[in-house]
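Bench log, entry 3. Co-assembly request; chain sequences pasted below exactly as received.
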Amino acid sequence: MNRPANDTFLRALLRQPTEYTPIWLMRQAGRYLPEYCATRARAGSFLRLCKSPSLCCEAALQPLARFPLDAAIVFSDILTLPDAMGLGLFFSENEGPRFERPLREEGAIRALAVPDPHDRLRYVMDAVAETRRSLAGSVPLIGFSGSPFTLACYMVEGGGGEFWHFKKMIYDRPDLAHRILSVNAQAVTRYLNAQIESGVEAVMLFDSWGGCLTEAAYREFSLAYLQRIVAGLAREKDGQRIPSIVFARGGGLWLERIAACGCDALGLDWTIDVGAARRRVGERVALQGNLDPAVLLASPEAIVRETRALLDAFGPADTGHVFNLGHGVSRLTPPEHVGVLVEAVHDYSRRLRGKNRARCGKA
Amino acid sequence: MNRPANDTFLRALLRQPTEYTPIWLMRQAGRYLPEYCATRARAGSFLRLCKSPSLCCEAALQPLARFPLDAAIVFSDILTLPDAMGLGLFFSENEGPRFERPLREEGAIRALAVPDPHDRLRYVMDAVAETRRSLAGSVPLIGFSGSPFTLACYMVEGGGGEFWHFKKMIYDRPDLAHRILSVNAQAVTRYLNAQIESGVEAVMLFDSWGGCLTEAAYREFSLAYLQRIVAGLAREKDGQRIPSIVFARGGGLWLERIAACGCDALGLDWTIDVGAARRRVGERVALQGNLDPAVLLASPEAIVRETRALLDAFGPADTGHVFNLGHGVSRLTPPEHVGVLVEAVHDYSRRLRGKNRARCGKA
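Structure output for the full assembly:
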């Protein structure tokens, strides 16, 4: 396979020069788009949508038909992996994701096994392949998984919330917690490598809940497993390097440690100033983020102002930054505001590079 | 009034030497205690409980009857203040706090006024006075308020959640956001000063949601107003200094700035290592915190182990630390586990001081 026509996103992740700052958005295929709501309604439920490769492909491409985004992301859910491990995922109307069989008993934890992604998660691999074909070499396709810790939070709790059950286990039965995390790490590694085989050109690990740990517990129960996964990922496919991104929500205090896990890029939530993050770790990894998703609810003028401020804060550099939100697009976002954001990022980052070149020329 | 018989808590906040590390717990009077649930049931509802000074006094004293805690806190809710501002607080069974009249229209925002705490919040002042009398000089009584930003999140949203409405306002209509925050800051200052007049011996500001802001927005929309309040607080009552504590949940990245707001102590959530926090700001303020509340769900052995690790991490010092959780006591906590924690803190911190003296003696 060849490199996509627009490989700006991949080059920025590998800290190679780019003409402008590439942008994609977490949850860019989501409920703020009426066409996504229509697709979901046609599927009958969110889970059926996730299990239909053709509808996943349709959803993944919808934001790209509207906005000149620089990457697509596979349409799926992080909890399909524990579902494939036999936990029985379902979505209740107002309570979000639930598992029929939460992982609470020692016997069930000892019996937990790594699923074959080409078998139990065949539908994801088919969605990857179909989406990649439909992109027709336009922009790169991102694969993803939840982190071992984040998945374990849901698996032991049996759903969302404050995850008291897994946090109690960490203090009471660290041996069982490590057993789950170890199986999860192997499962995630195989799952992401299968996505790479099936056609994704970059991978992202969502550590959405690691930030609810103490620093010591974060190192032991989340970061250690992120490291294992990154070390086990296929680094190349067809001669192309496959960059990896770790989204460490709430990890601002621990950026240096996370940046040393072996990943190519760090995804930042919006609580850390991107300039400060760059000074702390920007020589080591690319940075992805980190506009407050609430900005997209505000006026176009505010969106342009905040976008420029963020690009200014990152500072003069012609690479190493992928623009994104600090979390997923809110379903309250007017779709046209995403268009304003994408245009502002592309235009202003080109201008900054122009100014930078002019300054360097004079010096 | 005289100083309480046990003033360890007050001395630790003012960084004067103490014989052991004092401890109290956020939400120490809460649903994990069956006697609290009985009091609440007798009141009929949470809001009626908050509005009954004698039941508030009863609830505030319940944890002290069980455990040798070093401070009591007034039993109330941060949202009684916006209720007194006319927003109409009520609690729906599963959705938590709601306001009948969320603050969304410019006219209502312009009309927002500072309530007289001795009038509209008389029931809180009566609860303070009755609780102080009932404590009979045993341990100090803490008064509290939500921060202007945290209160505004609820006031504009009309309840809990992700606070999209106020965050949108910050970007779209910063003038209106500042108007609300400015009224809130005056209201909080008067409210806390009225609590001091009524008998509290320390005050705490809960900035529970400031951590959901960007760094720049945090400075402008939360920290600036905390500073105003601290500057406006009565510093003394009857010749006794009244220490102030700012609980900055999610503020680990900004500790230095928060520590410079003029408060005597910083309340920490559990995501920051208390030793690291002490190195960053411990010469400036006392620290309060920060055990992960999930530890209290684990075995007594785990509680003792984690408690000692935290006291060791704070390091050798005979003052400047008030032990607490990094957030409120979970309702899932077995009450006897709180007893284990309190004993572990008292015993181990005495032993550390002993070791420290021995070491100093030898040197």
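Chain A touches chain B through 33 residues (CB under 8 Å). The domain at 8-362 of chain A is CATH 3.20.20.210 (TIM Barrel).
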